[in-house]
Structures are given as structure tokens and as C-alpha cells.
Design goal:
The protein is an alpha/beta fold and 444 residues long. It contains twelve helices and 23 strands. The protein has an eight-stranded mixed sheet with strand order 1-23-2-3-4-5-6-7. Strands 8-9-10-11-12-21-22 form a seven-stranded mixed sheet. A six-stranded parallel sheet has the order 15-14-16-13-17-20, with helices on both faces. Helix 2 packs antiparallel against helix 6 and helix 5 packs across helix 7. Bound molecules: zinc ion (2 copies).
């Protein structure tokens, strides 16, 4: 593998998309990635003479080269909604030719981004794919990181920018941009529901003119969280009673901390393995970024961090609970536990979120089998899938539109953005469009 990667986007001249509002010709918007998909989020907003990039992410495709958003180099600033790789993973590529592009985000986001970007380099090396940057570019990106605070406006040229808590993971933010009397809200990933880990999104804000919103679950609701929590606890307790190992797989940033908080109700010890350990240590340093720091600390006190192979081997030899990565079973320590226990009917493996097509997690759900160390194995453990999503549900998305009453909406970060735009137009009588490719441009 390796070598040059071609852009998947059709090349061509800019095409102006009219949605029939104003005509100030001072602001232009292009969606450079995640137009009609989840992954590689990137939105270019030109306001006056400033070019601001909202997120610059990477789409990790199972067993393939990662996909990048459309390339840009003349950027004045990056605004980062949160650390997840689909929002931050392409940022270092901006530093291949330049040393000075300021990146604005909430404090903890910088540290979590550091963790994820260095991990991406390691993963790329292991899987043999070509990442378009190395440690040097990551270091430059980190040097350019500037921490901002929720609700404290700052300026990029004549653009006034305000961050609001997005309720997705610690440090996640929605950004309101104001320029020449026109306002834009970019949501990044957000959640209006309360979670154990972070408070719900702060949407107490004035009306916006243009809303650019994620739309991952535009046509789906999430099951009530209380039910999912009860199910999780039941799986853990029943597995222990059978004398098995309860393996719980989830994302390192946000998800496994949420699961730790749920399990802390059970007053028992459990193990945490993989990158989630570092992510938890970082989160401990930012007490303001979690909903209830005392609860978080208590959950961490009940958590035993797996330090080495000796501990791992001990864990598989007695009834235990282990929370680990990767969330879609693509690699990481979860493979060790599954390799050891896949034949054991007393043990269980619980997936805590959606499994993308092509991942080992999806394969396990559909076939009861998966590949570990290049070997196909039948998994006899009890397999379950729960929904601990930290994204806005369909009703959350519709609620946000009502709350900020925009004059136009551009849905991004979803597989059915066009269908959703059409629905918004019909339901709310609001101009709404999904930009099909990075050469379409909205001018305001
Ligand atoms: Zn995210
Ligand atoms: Zn995302």
C-alpha cells in the first residue's frame, strides 16, 4: 500500500449555489469534506479578507487509505470544534508548507488532539497506509494551538467568534461567527441530551442567520439512555455471575469515560485498557470540562488502568470487566481479550455504538465471526450492541433549528444531507441546501 492518494471529489471551477437570501457578496462558504458523509469534516468560510477553516478532519475507512477533505493552503485560521479525528485529523497537512496557522479551540481539545494525532501516525505505520504528515507537522500544529473559552468572544480580523458548549465530548464546541451584521452557527458534533460525562449543548443564544449543522442521525432517534444503562449493567452482572470476562468496547475519547461513569453505580472495580487511559488522565486535568467532576473522579477511582501484559493476562483468568479500544474492533487491546476468550460462552463482548460497514465489529454482529491476527474466528461469547451515541438525535436536530430560527440551513456530516435539506425546506419553509461537492459555493 502507500503512494499518492487521489481526491475523490470532482475537480472543476466553482459553481455558485443560490439560496435566495441577501446578496452582500462578502461571505462565501464551501464544504470541503463531509458534504454527504460522516468523516473528513472541513468547511471554508471566507468573510471579507479572512479565510477561516472550520475543522479539517480525516475519514478513516476500514482497511483502506484514509480520505482527506479538499486540499487548501491559503488559510488564515482554523477553528476546531473538537478533537475527534474526523474533525482534526488533516490539520497537520496545513503545516507541510507553512509554520503559522493559528488553531482556535477549547483548552482540553488541544491535548486530546495531540493524543489522537500522534496515535494516527502510529496506526498508519502499523497498517501500512500513507499519512500525509509526520511528527514534525503535528508538533507545528500544536505550537499554533490557541485556547479559547466558551462564551468569551474573540476576533479573527473583523470576524467575531464565540464558542458554545456542544455537549458531545469534553471540550466540544459550536461556533458562532459574526461578520458585518451576518451570523453563522457551525455546530460541529453536538448533543442536546444530558450525558453522564458532559453537560448538554448550550443553545442559549440569539437567532442565527445561517446554520451549518451536523446531521449524523437526521432520520434516527436514539433509544432512551436509562434503558441502555440498565442493559449495560445487566450484561456486566450476568457475565460476572457466570464467571466470565465482560469486554466492553468503545471509543477512547468520551465514550469509555461515559461507560465508566455508568458502571461506577455498581460499586465494583473494573479495568480500563488502551488509549482511553491517556484520554482519562487528560480529562482529569480539566475539571470544568466535565458535567460533575466529583462523579468523574469517583469513577476513575473505581477504575484500574491496565499497565502491562502481566495485568492483561491476569484479567483473562478470573471474572472481570474490562473497558477497551477500539470501538469497532479494528485493533487495539480488545483483540487480545477476544483472542483469549472468543470460545468462552460465559464471557461477553458489548459494543457501545454504531459499527460502520467494513469493520470487524460490523462483521461480528452480522456473522458471529471476526478476524483476529489474520485468522478468522467464531465468537461464542455473548455479543450485544448498545447505543451510547453522543450525537444529536433527529428530534435534537429539529429542536436546534427551532431554537436558533435560521434563515438558511446547510446540513453536513451525514449520509442523507440532501434528503434532510429537502425536509427542512418543506417543514420549516427555510432555505436549505446540501452542498454536493467542494466546488459548490454559497455567497452571501
Ligand atoms: Zn465527534
Ligand atoms: Zn464527527
Amino acid at each position: 500500500m502507500g503512494g499518492a492518494i487521489k481526491s475523490n471529489f470532482p475537480a472543476g471551477p466553482l459553481r455558485e449555489v443560490s439560496i435566495g437570501v441577501l446578496n452582500m457578496s462578502k461571505i462565501s462558504i464551501r464544504v470541503l469534506g463531509a458534504n454527504t458523509e460522516v468523516g473528513r469534516s472541513a468547511i471554508m468560510i471566507q468573510a471579507g479578507d479572512r479565510r477561516i477553516l472550520m475543522d479539517y478532519g480525516l475519514k478513516l475507512v476500514p482497511k483502506k487509505e484514509p480520505l482527506y477533505p479538499e486540499e487548501v493552503d491559503d488559510v488564515d485560521a482554523v477553528i476546531l470544534s473538537h478533537a475527534h479525528v474526523d474533525h482534526s485529523g488533516a490539520i497537520p497537512t496545513l503545516f507541510r508548507k507553512r509554520d503559522d496557522v493559528p488553531i482556535y479551540g477549547v483548552d482540553i481539545t488541544g491535548d486530546l488532539m495531540e493524543l489522537l494525532l500522534y496515535d494516527s501516525i502510529k496506526v498508519a505505520k502499523r497498517r501500512g497506509y500513507h499519512l500525509r504528515y509526520g511528527p514534525k507537522e503535528v508538533r507545528k500544529a500544536l505550537e499554533n494551538y490557541r485556547s479559547i473559552e466558551y462564551r468569551v468572544p474573540f476576533r479573527i480580523g473583523n470576524v467575531r467568534v464565540t464558542a458554545y458548549n456542544a455537549g458531545h465530548i469534553p471540550g466540544s464546541a459550536m461556533f458562532r461567527l459574526e461578520f458585518d451584521g451576518f451570523s453563522i452557527l457551525y455546530t460541529g458534533d453536538f448533543n442536546l441530551r444530558r450525558s453522564r460525562l458532559v453537560p448538554p449543548a448550550d443553545v442559549n443564544m440569539p437567532k442565527v442567520d445561517l446554520l451549518i449543522t451536523e446531521s449524523t442521525y437526521a432520520f434516527r432517534e436514539h433509544p432512551p439512555r436509562e434503558g441502555q444503562e440498565r442493559l449495560l449493567k445487566r450484561i456486566v452482572l450476568e457475565t460476572m455471575k457466570r464467571g466470565g470476562l465482560s469486554v466492553i468496547a468503545g471509543f477512547a475519547i468520551g465514550r469509555l469515560a461515559e461507560i465508566s461513569l455508568v458502571l461506577s453505580d455498581l460499586n465494583m472495580k473494573f479495568f480500563l485498557d488502551g488509549m482511553a487511559k491517556k484520554s482519562a488522565r487528560i480529562t482529569e486535568e480539566y475539571r470544568d470540562r466535565v458535567r460533575n467532576f466529583r462523579e468523574f473522579r469517583r469513577a476513575m477511582e473505581a477504575t484500574v488502568f491496565v499497565k502491562n501484559w502481566k495485568v492483561r493476562r491476569k484479567i483473562v483468568n478470573k471474572p472481570s470487566v474490562v473497558l477497551t479500544t477500539s470501538g469497532m474492533l479494528e485493533g487495539g487491546p480488545v483483540h487480545f481479550y477476544l483472542k483469549e476468550k472468543h470460545e468462552d460462552e460465559r464471557s461477553s463482548i458489548t459494543l457501545t455504538g454504531y459499527q460502520i460497514e467494513g469493520t470487524e465489529g460490523r462483521k461480528l454482529l452480522e456473522t458471529g465471526e471476526m478476524t483476529i491476527d489474520e485468522e478468522n474466528v467464531e465468537v461464542n461469547m455473548r455479543v450485544s450492541q448498545l447505543n451510547f451515541s453522543a450525537h444529536a438525535s433527529r428530534s435534537n436536530l429539529l429542536e436546534l433549528i427551532k431554537l436558533v430560527s435560521p434563515d438558511m440551513v446547510v446540513p453536513v456530516h451525514g449520509e442523507e444531507t440532501e434528503r434532510f435539506a429537502k425536509e427542512i425546506k418543506e417543514t420549516f419553509d427555510i432555505a436549505s441546501v446540501s452542498l454536493e461537492d467542494p466546488y459548490e459555493e454559497i455567497r452571501i
